[in-house]
Amino acid sequence: MEGTGSYGAALTRYLRRYDITVVEVNRPDRAARRRHGKTDAIDATAAAHAVLSARATTTAKTGDGPVEMLRMFKLARTSAVKSRTQAMNQLKAVIVGAD
Fold it and tell me: What's one GO BP annotation on this UniProt entry (predicted)?
């Protein structure tokens, strides 16, 4: 699988649930992709060649454990800080704009 972030992470978890081995493939070089044109078929073929030639042997991350837990905590904190900042900015705007 090319890129196991966001959509790929959910698909990886689903496949692992059914004991299907998922191999992570690095994205191709962007410059090389632009020279030859970017298509999903070309990307899929390149990923398959990388796995078959044993250049791609990295097992995809499981998406659980302490690292994932910490990522979720950081995501929640970032969201809370953003909401707090937004609320403070709205309150200032009301105070400044009030008669």
Answer: DNA transposition
